[in-house]
Design brief:
Number of helices: 5
Distance between the termini: 71 Å
CATH class: Alpha Beta
Number of strands: 6
CATH topology: Nuclear Transport Factor 2, Chain: A
Oligomer: single chain
Order of helices and strands: HHHEEHHEEEE
Structural class: alpha+beta
Strand order of the largest sheet: 2-1-6-5-4-3
Helix content: 25-40%
Shape: globular
Length: 147
């Protein structure tokens, strides 16, 4: 009986994560920002689909590799230099596709310049065998009211 109990525990410990246990789209977006804040580029990239499209600052990066080689370092530096207060967040899901829409107030200093902006973002995610992955990011910003 003792051996059966040990075997049962081993099976439970190695059982694959079920969809009910996997992080949802909102948690993935929050994990992406946490990775940026921690300066963990590998963790941030792991949350992106290979064919992610990132629209930022009027430009388009059409893959995870392109984003990693262009804006990722700058985005990490920016997120580490400012405070980001989420003021609005909405999400939804339809089958294997989900979206997280948000607005945040961003304040601080980046590269010697004062920042006080409202950032709007759209993130679209797709469920993959590895869990939810971000397939599209669109960031836009404007000066905060009163600036």
């Amino acid at each position: 009986m003792r051996m059966l109990g040990v075997l049962s525990l081993a099976l439970v410990a190695t059982a694959p994560t079920t969809r009910a246990q996997e992080p949802g789209p909102v948690e993935i977006v929050r994990a992406f920002y946490a990775a940026l804040e921690a300066g963990d580029s590998a963790a941030a990239i792991d949350l992106l689909a290979r064919d992610v499209v990132v629209l930022e600052a009027g430009g388009v990066e059409a893959s995870r590799d392109e984003y990693a080689s262009h804006h990722l370092r700058s985005d990490i530096g920016f997120v580490q230099s400012v405070t980001r207060e989420v003021t609005r967040e909405m999400s939804g899901m339809e089958g294997e596709v989900a979206w997280v829409l948000g607005e945040a107030r961003v304040r601080g200093t980046f590269r010697g310049r004062a920042v006080d902006s409202v950032v709007a973002e759209t993130m679209i995610l797709k469920r993959t065998p590895a869990g939810w992955r971000i397939v599209h990011i669109h960031w836009s910003s404007r000066r905060a009211p009163g600036n």
